[in-house]
Amino acid sequence: MTEITRVQLFSEGGDTWLALAPEMTLLSGLVLLFIVPNLGDAKWRIPLTQVRIPVLFGGRRFTATSDPRLPAMLAIATLLLALWQALISQGADAKTWLLTSGSGAEANILLRVDAFSRIFEIMFYSALLLAAVASIDRLPARRAGSEIQQLIDNRRQVDFYLLLLMTAFGMSIVTMSMDLFVLFIGLEIATLSIYVLVAFHKETPEGAEGGVKYFIVGAVSSAVALYGISLLYLWNGNLQLMSNSATGQIGLVERWAEMESLLGLPLIAFCFVLVGFAFKVSAVPFHFAAPDAYSGASSTVAGILATASKAMGFIGLIRVLVMLAAPADGSAVWMFGLGVIAVVTMTWGNVAALSSSNPKRMLAYSSIAHAGYMLAALAALGAWAWGGESDLISSAPTDAGQWILTALIFHLVVLVAFKLGAFLVLALLETEGEVSDTAPLAGLARRDPIIAVSMFIFMLSLAGVPPLAGFMSKFLLIGGVVKMSAGDAFAAIAAGDGWSLGQMHWTFWLALSVFLNSALSLFYYLRIGVIMFFEVPIEGRRKPLIKAWFLRLSIWVCAIGTVIFGVWSDHLINLCYNAALAVL
92 or 189: whose pLDDT is higher? Predict the structure, then answer.
């Protein structure tokens, strides 16, 4: 049994600092990024005297603080320390922390630090750490030239890494939130930083257009979600997910379960919240800004959008769908709607990717398809939870829901390896110029065999080819859905009544859709391999790729992780299973 410790936020003791150690490290890193790059030999003269006192801020900066690579090193050190703190908290003596708004049993629970929040913190920090390392070579950081040029380069680096750390901090709040308003605050802290990152290269028309579109759509989705949250507050009187017996406050979960029907204000509020999160995960038909945002942003930032940002949206969906809506009797209507959206999303994403010649847009549509796969898992998970109150799947295994959620979490975690890795390869190609079509990939195997092999590994993993991580995640996902949907069929076979396809639960067709769409995606993923290994390099791109060792290091780490998480994933699956149990 996991030890549960209940503490007041920022109380006199050190429990808050211990529970939120990674977040405190991120805040410390943000403060250092504000201070250290501004240190210089500035002095302040005491009025009416000639005495000058060093104030350190401003003036001619010191040699160490004027290095354009200093912000990257500070951000990397911060993310490394935060990642290490999150990792060690997952040991044998792992605790569950309940961080409350006040002291005693009457306080409301605002944050919950458990296996679920920690596994996603590890994923977020890993993705942003790889992006930070890769960006050392990707962003301009010139040592030569005028002092003004060095100042501009240094400020550009500071801005970028400040936004990365702010994104990490916001995502951490989302993972721990047990109050919908706190979840929304964390979501906006991360999302506002991502808006700027998308348009960071604003000097390019694509960057400006993609940033503006993503900001407008994101702002609308946030407003819709906030309106839904406000209606839930109007309906329930608070936004706590769990009830508090000491104060008599009824949480949203218990209040939802007590409803006799979904008609009225709660249904309207629920739909608004779902629409808001559907924008965040790029579900069809709320996906239209995603391809432009991916193609306009730098490939490194696009990789963050496809992995960490998408996982943040799914955390919100898990909180709302699994914790809030799933336990209620008669709430199955959202499962059918979500199942339809899942099938349309995965199919549309794959069909659009088939006709796309821009690698970044192709990976954007691929990301939409993967969102469909994960939405299918959520729909099946809702059917499993609702089955406890119905006769539809009364024979489904009792642990089917745990394994479906485990597969969903596992897929979100390992997606960092092969999806981010594919975007980092495009970032390496972008050092030579724009990558607006597949021409820069032509003959990549002749120019740089290791990078070409890494890219091919990423493509195979995205397609779900064994024994890579993408295959294992899809295998777990499809297997969990089939395990749940085949409950009545297995019962009929055990009773000697025979078996027919009609005895399968409707969620079986979701698993079949994931399988068929994965087969469809093989075409455009393998097309990248054909271009790299069998076509001739175009004129002007026949020399070996630049070294960019930090960017290459990130690519190699992603490639190794893609292989390891496919052939040796037992420990990670156990962590994901513990995270699923913490939610269910």
Answer: 189
Supply the DSSP symbol for 501: G
CA 493 to CA 497: how far, in whole Å?
6
Instruction: Evaluate whether 155 touches 66 at the Cβ level (below 8 Å).
Output: no
Name, in order, each residue with C-beta under 8 angstroms of 40's C-beta and a sequence gap of 6 or more: 56, 57, 58, 59, 60, 61, 62, 65
Q: HSE, CB side, 13 Å, CA atoms: give it for residue 187.
A: 29
Smallest CA-to-CA distance from 157 within 69, 82, 76 is with: 69
Q: What is the pTM of this model?
A: 0.89
Contacts 24+ apart (CB under 8 A), 561-565: 561/414, 561/416, 561/417, 561/421, 561/469, 562/414, 562/417, 562/418, 562/421, 562/457, 562/458, 562/461, 562/468, 562/469, 562/470, 563/457, 563/467, 563/468, 563/469, 564/469, 565/414, 565/417, 565/469, 565/472
User: For helices 549-567 and 400-415, what crossing angle results, to 10°?
Assistant: 160
End-to-end CA distance of the chain: 15
- Cross-strand bridge partners of residue 61: 40
**Tens-place pLDDT, residues 338-395:** 888 999 999 999 999 998 888 999 999 999 999 999 999 888 887 766 554 333 344 4
- Residue pair 157/72 in contact by the 8 Å Cβ criterion: yes
For 39-128, strand residue ranges (E) read 43-45, 52-54, 95-100, 109-113
- Residue type for position 314: F
DSSP, res 544: P
CB-CB contact of 394 with 487 (8 Å): yes
Identify any residues that bridge with 3 across adjacent strands, giving them in sequence order. Answer: 95
- In the chain, the amino acid numbered 127 is A
CA dist 515 and 492 (Å) reads 25
- Report how far residue 55's alpha carbon sits from residue 47's, in angstroms, rounded to the nearest whole number: 15
* DSSP β-bridge partners for residue 249: 244
